[in-house]
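Worked Example 4.2. Consider the chain below.
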Amino acid sequence: MKVSICLPTFNSVRFLSDRLDSIIGQSYADWELIVVDSGSIDGTVQTVDELIARDDRVRLIQTPRDGIYPNFNRGIAHANGELVHIATSDDTMARDFLEKMVRALEANCDCDIAHCPMLVFNVDGVDGINWWHQQSMFARSSGSLINERHKRIAPLDGVLCLLGDNVYSSVTQMLVRKTLFEKVGCYESSWGSLGDFHWNLRAGLVANTIHVPDTWGGWRMHPEQATASVQIGSRGHQLLINQMITDVLDRLDLFLEKRDQVEICGKYVPQARELRDYRGEYEGYSTVLQRRAFMIRQLVDGRMVAWRHLRALLGGGRHWLRDSPQLAASWFDDDVLVPLGLV
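Applying the procedure from the previous section yields the following structure tokens:
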């Protein structure tokens, strides 16, 4: 068995047929599907049972109702495959998703994660606003490589997470070697619906990633989704992100060699913290006058990040803060974004 697909469900029947169709219809066939259900009463279990009767690659596990991340972890624990994909019940993926992602990891043995673009669609399955290609941390850090196959060398994606935003926007865009979960641990439920950021930060510090631009993982936007209540950019959201960053940095010894801990904490953490704090304060002001006054105060205090911002503005770089992920990539002495050519 090459790929284990973990599908957590709870009263998921509304979108479940679309999700199951996207799995059964994959052009790559060497997979198992582990449905982890938390006591659904809406027909979800019956739908899965009907599929099990037709396809022996599918099995169902019944679990307590204790959140989506524990069910991610139960699926991973039951996985027989070398590679793991988390398939959220309301989303979908391209027919060639597994085929191309498996092929990418087979060709790049030094990578533990295969990643692809996101296709956003609405509750009816109609393509929505394509924010991922322009606004996501991954896209902004990739620059012109976003439409090219490229390799991302650790700890780049972890350092980018230190800026306070998710590099990997959704689990639906990823195929992960099971050994990576053994190295950095599984998902933690104590962080609420933002818990994937905690795992992404851990993984990004140790794992190389191969980006596969010619397939996609879907993300359905609707009011009932797990992240619908998250107020991205709010004070509470940023506080939780900062707490997760602190928690991971306090536990680096669990999954990083000592020399790597010293480099990350001594070189990248201070720069990322300075840039994250500066950007958060700057963007917290609503008028140009307030932002200019803030910058002047920071210049007077001798903060290097403010001087870099000023130099960028004088050089015509109006979007310097938006492009901060590319700035973070420039902190590395070696190439951490390695182009592999057009597909």
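The longest helix spans residues 258-283. The radius of gyration is 21 Å. Compare this with Example 4.1 before moving on.
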